[in-house]
Specification:
The complex is a heterodimer of chains A (348) and B (441). With 348 residues, chain A is α/β, with parallel strands linked by helices. Chain A is built from eleven helices and 13 strands. In chain A, helix 4 links the parallel strand 4 and strand 5. In chain B, the strands form six sheets. In chain B, strands 5, 6, 9, 10, 11 and 23 form a six-stranded mixed sheet that branches. Chain B has a six-stranded mixed sheet with strand order 16-18-13-19-20-21, sandwiched between helices. A four-stranded mixed sheet of chain B has the order 7-8-1-12. Classes of the chains: A alpha/beta (348), B alpha/beta (441).
């Protein structure tokens, strides 16, 4: 039999309300509060432990609380982790989100919780974990535990999972293609949506526009003449042998190459491997894509303090935003450690 | 304009002594067809194979698909490309339905080429899997691009168009089994009843991102990179004015077959006079420079407004950089008061986690989505390969790779493959066939 653990707060553990909200984390063998019901309805696992923590304790000492709970779990065997349901309780929702996310990252097991759509925990954590839509209060406890348990059973049995909508959890921004069972072609769907939009009727876009992840413009550099600047490109400029085998499209790899003492990138020594634009100009003169010549001139003129000794490069075409962000974060470590104040990022 | 497409519903394609159409069967004199193709001295090696739905055949690298046709009223099927310029969209054109001519590389693939499986799990990824494909497998003397990732594939694409005309020509003297009529009154000469209906334009953004000529879609033979948005009659698109190019990752491609049958256009034709007043097509394009994108959007919005369009259907042949053109155009149309519906695919990554389009705007509130270019696809070996399987891994096709630390090479020793949807031939069917959509998981 597989094993499950449930996280609940002090209130649902029967310890008390606000007065007991500072209750420090603890783990109990067996079933406390909603764990009893969960254990009853869960088919493919038994609930072996209940983790309890006061909402205030988790809210004001999140790191400590999470750390302690992860320690509790280290020597336990479990295949799935549940939390809540948290209904409309904001602090409880945030606690369920924090602990589920940490457990998923540390132990790699599936995590499941449930909250009401107005719970702020939904927006905070829906991208990271599966959050089922719960009722407003404990009146819907049984119903909500049922949803969590049914999903848990499916996951544990390795059954094919439906879409977020079919399963009933909040969308996470994870989108995959599916074939429509009724095989309605795009042209029919376009006309249907068109007529509805013209008539002012309700329609559902197949690509709901998510909130944009905008990066604020960086702070101004006060003294450029003292700043160290690095060159970064998504234009695919590499040493001709492409030593890090960066892909020509949909890149997952990037490189950093020493340019110390070099005044320009020579054709034949550097080239572009980017498959999304005509490479002729950049191969003939790689500086048009990665302007080492111009930056070195600025350095000699004293306009910038120093050009960083390496340039950083990858390929932007077809590269997903998630991979691009990961690669950028890896580059940022070098910038921080090696005293880079700003970068010039060139594209194509 | 009044266009009659004379349909011949093909049940089988076979080789024989005489190229002809009889009782639903196309017979091709293979040697005569090859000789006709070889009139172009740039074709150095050529063979023809037939691949039918249900057969255990994998075809790669596929560069183009064309419906075999014959312009009964005279002239070439693709004016400005395979023959002299003339107006199309009027008169009679015969079509051999359920078939297509494929341009297949004998060895060499390129970035925009694709793969077609004729049966099994892989067959659901392409529209062409349902057709009887007459595969022109050829090599050329285009040494300048043999080892380039980006290829113009000029000789082989033109050879396939010429072969499609050669085969289509066997219907010239025959009576079609069915006639589809596409006819619309000029915009200012329509009845009050039709004028009272909500008016709709189709805005198409064919692939035109390459500054160098030879890679982009052509409009009456004119490179769409050198074109500003222009107004066209829908019949022109259906009747050979537009041909596909050789650049975009393949699942986003509109093949020439797609242009000839464009479902978004034929579907709006069906609504014309009933629920909508179909005004026509604004043929825009896709550009790499921001100013070019903005300029095209300005032209499109102005034209839609001046035509009195209440609504627009907007579709892009591409993803990534072209998403910026798509959204810019969507926003410009909405700002002009034209209620717009978009049709596009997405790039959410293999894990589905990435932003679906490169740029987004709240005004793009009505989109039909046709697939994810980066979905990972694993397929078992096929009994027969037409073309060269290794091209998927070796030649830089957008959805293939020579090696990967975790996944290994795209083409394995036993002939099984692992690839991204990117290289499924015209797989996301943005022209309107797609029965795929995108869902949250």
């Amino acid at each position: 039999m597989k094993k499950a653990i449930l996280y609940i707060n002090q209130f649902f553990a029967g310890l008390g309300g606000e007065a007991k909200a500072d209750y420090a984390p603890e783990i109990k063998n067996g079933l406390v509060g909603p764990a009893m019901e969960l254990d009853k309805i869960l088919q493919n696992a038994e609930v072996t432990h209940t983790v309890i923590c006061g909402d205030n304790f988790m809210g004001s000492n999140t790191e400590k609380a999470v750390e302690r709970i992860l320690e509790f779990l280290e020597d336990k065997e479990f295949d799935i982790f549940f939390a809540g349901p948290a209904f409309q309780a904001g602090r409880y929702g945030s606690a369920c989100g924090n602990i589920c996310k940490a457990v998923k990252e540390k132990f790699g097991v599936p995590v499941v919780t449930a909250m009401h759509e107005e719970n702020p925990g939904v927006d905070m954590f829906k991208k990271d974990i599966v959050i089922f839509k719960s009722g407003k209060s404990a009146a819907s406890m049984r119903k909500d535990l049922n949803k969590m348990a049914q999903f848990g059973d499916k996951v544990l049995a390795g059954e094919k999972l439906g879409t977020a909508e079919e399963e009933g959890y909040f969308i996470r921004g994870i989108r995959h293609q599916v074939w429509l069972e009724d095989e309605v072609p795009a042209s029919d769907r376009v006309v249907d949506m068109l007529l509805k939009k013209i008539r002012g009727e309700e329609f559902i876009s197949e690509l709901p526009i998510p909130e944009l992840d905008r990066v604020p413009i960086a702070e101004k550099i006060e003294e450029l003449s003292k700043a160290t600047i690095a060159l970064v490109t998504s234009g695919g400029i590499v040493p001709v042998e492409n030593p890090d085998r960066i892909q020509s499209a949909s890149a997952t790899r990037w490189g950093r190459y020493n340019i110390k003492g070099m005044d320009r990138l020579e054709s034949g020594v550097y080239k572009t491997i980017h498959a999304g634009y005509d490479p002729a100009a950049a191969d003939a003169d790689p500086n048009v894509c990665l302007p080492l010549d111009a930056m070195r001139a600025y350095e000699n003129e004293g306009k910038i303090g120093k050009l960083h000794d390496y340039f950083y490069t990858t390929v932007g075409t077809g590269t997903t935003q998630a991979e691009a962000a990961r690669m950028a974060n890896e580059m940022v470590e070098y910038f921080k450690n090696e005293g880079v104040d700003a970068i010039v990022l060139t594209s194509t | 304009m009044k266009l009659e497409i004379g349909n011949f519903h093909v049940k089988d394609v076979v080789f024989g002594n005489e190229t002809k159409y009889e009782n639903g069967i196309v017979t091709i004199n293979k040697q005569e067809a090859i000789d006709y193709v070889k009139e172009d001295e740039h074709i150095t090696d050529v063979d023809i194979f037939i691949a039918k739905p249900g057969e255990k055949i994998r075809i790669v690298p596929v560069k183009e698909a064309i419906e075999p046709r014959c312009r009964v009223s005279g002239g070439s099927v693709f004016p400005g490309v395979t023959g002299d310029l003339q107006q199309v969209g009027n008169g009679r054109t015969n079509a051999l339905k359920n078939t297509s001519v494929l341009a297949v590389g004998k060895h060499w693939g390129s970035f925009g080429d694709g793969l077609i499986d004729m049966s099994g799990e892989g067959a659901k990824y392409t529209y062409n899997s349902q057709l009887i494909n007459i595969c022109l497998v050829a090599d050329t003397d285009e040494e300048f691009e043999r080892y380039e990732q980006q290829k113009k594939n000029h000789a082989i694409r033109w050879a396939a168009m010429r072969l499609s005309e050669y085969i289509g020509n066997c219907t010239k003297e025959l009576k079609p089994e069915e006639i589809e009529t596409y006819e619309m009154e000029p915009i200012t000469k329509r009845s009050p009843e039709v004028n009272a209906l909500p008016s709709v334009v189709v805005v198409l953004q064919p692939q035109s991102q390459m500054e160098e000529l030879g890679y982009n879609d052509l409009n009456y033979g004119w490179d769409t990179n050198r074109m500003l948005p222009t107004f066209m009659h829908p019949n022109e698109v259906l009747d050979g004015a537009m041909i596909s190019g050789s650049f975009m990752p393949c699942s986003s491609k509109w093949s020439t077959y797609d242009f000839q049958n464009f479902p978004l256009i034929t579907r709006l034709y069906k609504e014309h006079g009933k629920t909508i007043n179909f005004l026509g097509v604004i043929m825009s394009n896709l550009n790499v420079a921001l100013e070019q994108k903005e300029r095209a959007a300005l032209f499109v919005a102005q034209m839609a407004k001046s035509l009195g369009a209440d609504s627009a259907v907007l579709a892009e042949e591409g993803y990534g950089n072209p998403d910026a053109d798509f959204i810019a155009c969507f926003v410009a149309l909405e700002d002009a008061g034209v209620k717009t519906i978009g049709c596009t695919n997405e790039c959410t990554g293999r894990d589905g986690n990435s932003q679906p389009l490169v740029t987004l705007d709240k005004k793009a509130d009505a989109i039909v989505s046709t697939g994810n270019v980066s979905e990972l696809i694993e397929l078992p070996p096929m009994e027969k390969v037409i073309g060269e399987l290794q091209s998927l891994a070796r030649d830089g096709l957008s959805g293939g790779w020579a090696g990967d630390e975790i996944l290994g090479p795209s083409v394995r020793e036993d002939g099984s493959i692992i690839m991204e949807n990117n290289s499924m031939f015209a797989g996301d069917q943005i022209a309107g066939w797609s029965t795929k959509t995108m869902k949250e998981f």
